[in-house]
Every structure is written in structure tokens, then in C-alpha cells.
Known about the structure:
six-stranded antiparallel sheet, endopeptidase fold (from Nostoc punctiforme), alpha+beta
Amino acid sequence: MNSPTSSSSNKSTIRLTLVGLIALSVCLVVASAFLTHLLEHHTAPAATAAPPTSTGIPASETAPPPAGQIPPWGELLTLDVELEQPEEYVAFEATTDRSTTWVFTGNTLAQTRSILTQCGMPPAQLEAALAPAMVEVTSEATTVKPSDEVVLALTPEVRAKLYVTLAQWPANPHMANPYHLTNANFGVLSVDSDVPAASIAMVKNLTYTQRGNQFFSDPDVVLHKIPSPEGRLHLLKMLTYQTAVLARLRLRPDSDLDKILGYWGTVPGVHAKDLRPLLESIKNTPDGGTLSLLYFLPAFARERLYTSPLPFQAGDVKMDCHWSAMNFFNATPDPRFQDNAYASAYIKDHCYQIGKPSMCGDLVFLMNSKGQVIHSAVYIADDLVFTKNGINFAQPWILMRIPNLRGVFTFSEEPQIVYYRRKEA
């Protein structure tokens, strides 16, 4: 057994002389000074970064526009967002018991065959599509229920020609109102583990191009291939994504409130007497602030923006784009605007055409080459419009940029945009 003395003798021992202690102290001082220099060098930029204003927006990001370049509506801050339909509404469509249907309204079987041939469908594919078990002929239409294999085999060129033809008949809703896809739609879907990669690839293969825009009209085919209800739901949610705009008005201590109120204060249903105290309170803060554009819109738009109507019941008003645009200034919506004939007569009697919009409330019409209005919206400011894209109850009321709106409705042809103003404006 070892003694305590012999055990301690095995440990390492550091012995410092006076000279060594002085040398060690000098080294520590030098190292400390060097480390301090490094820290100051790396943290210097943070000390000079622009501090946030009282609004929470960094001052470096809120520099005012050059003098004389602020438009009448003021300085707008906008954010583009991808907005989807409510999950409760999308769930109605997430079933697998539906089949693709092509309705050739007013056409015989022979005429339907001719149409498919003119669209470029190969003979073997044509015979498979028109197999007796897949066709129903009545005095009103020829209805074709192609198999998934026939639909998947269509080339993009044939699909585009065929679906543009089918779009002229309302009995083909997915062709008349196809899903308008952007890269954002696919980006959202690609990170969703509930949707198989093969189904995402199938959506891309079934997408067709019209006038530089991507469209999709075959959700039923893809739904058949997704086993889980969650996957089917997420696919349909992705398809409903559309680009909406959130907008706020930026107020600064030197903002011209008279000019701003001169634009917004004349909007029917919006009162300058109510806006001025609010704008002045924001302007008088040290850095100013922002205010949602909702405060500057009439009650009809303010109550509906970024919401979807309830599902239709028998006898309900058709709340489509025309009804929404024509009721923009009405505190109590006029149901007569669901009648296109009445709306057209009203525009003829109470509105006049203008070259470009410059007042909140100017009407924006998208027209086809036949002179028919295919969509109505309301000009708000800058390049923003108030719109409801379709009669479908799942379509929300949103703010949208005019170029994006035009793209959504550029299908068989690029629509012409015309502007009208109410005579009493």
C-alpha cells in the first residue's frame, strides 16, 4: 500500500518564479487588448445600423419618396400574399368519386368527333374517348366521360385547344374557369408531405399554357391518385392560391393631409371629418406611422375584403364580380345587379368611359374580342383594384394588381381593359 506522501509525488506541479509571473501577466494583458480589438471590429456595424422607428419599421427602409413624386392617394406600402380559400369550402371538392366530363353543348356525336379531330387528337386516342360506354348523346349535347388514361395522354397542345373549345360552354366549369397557377402554387405543394411527389408531377404534366399563363382543369384525375383525404384537401387548397395585396398608407410628420383627404375624402361612404383626426394623430407621432387601407374604403368593401361569402342557398343573390363592382358604394347591396342585362343598362345610363382611372371607385372592365364584359372590378389607387374573381362562393373579395388580374383572365385571348366612371362622381 502506498503512503499519502508517495501518492502526491506523482501529480504534476507548476512552479512560478517572480520573473515568470511577471512575463505571464504581460502576456495576459496583451491577449486581452487583442481580443477587445477584434470584438470592437466585428460589432462596429451593429452600432451604426438604422434604429427602428416608433412604428417598428427601420428608418433606413422608410425613406420618403423624392419631393413632388407622392401621388394624390399618398404613400402606399403594399405586401403581396398568396391567399387560399377556406379549408371548410375546399373540403367540398376533396372527393374521389367524381369523373372527368366533357360537354359539347349543341353538338351531335359526329360534330363532337370533328371537334376532337380538329384539336389534334390522334385516331387511337379519339376512338378510346368516344367508346360507346363513354358517350351520352341527347338533343341538347354530347357528353363524353373520358378515362383518366385518355386525359393523361393528351399533349399540352391538344389539351390547350380542346379546353379552350370546351370553355365556351358553362357545362364545363373547370375549363370555363380553370385554376390559374403560378410558381407559388407549386412551391407550397412541393413542401407538403401529404401530397405524393407523383401527384405533384401529374399536376405539372396536366398544366397547359394560354397567352403565357399556366392553367389546370383536371383536378378529378389527380384526386383519384391521392390515397389520403388530407393529401386531396391540401392539393385543392394549393390550387386555390391567388395573389392578393395587403395595403397600408404611410404617414409622416410632413405628410400633406389636405392632399390625401382630397383623394380619399371624396369616396362615397368615407367621411373626411372622421379620417382627419385619425390621420393627424398618426402624423403627430415622432416618426409618423401606417394605417390600413380598409379605413379609406366604403362599408361594402370594408366589410367583405379578404372574406368569402357563405355557401349558396336556393334563392340567394349571385355575388359575382359584376354584382360586387356595381355595389361598391352601396351600404345596402342592390340585388338587381346580379342581372347582367340590368347592370349593362345601368352602366349605359349612369356611367361614361374614361381613358385611365384616377379616382377610387372608377370601374374596371375586362372585355373579350366580341365586346363582352368577362370581368368587373373597382379601381382603388395606384395599380390596385377591388375584385371577386368568379361567382364561386369560395372566392374571396381581395385587392389585386391590375397586371395580375389581367393574367388570371387571359385564357383563350388577352382581354382588353376599359375604364368607366359614374356620372355623379
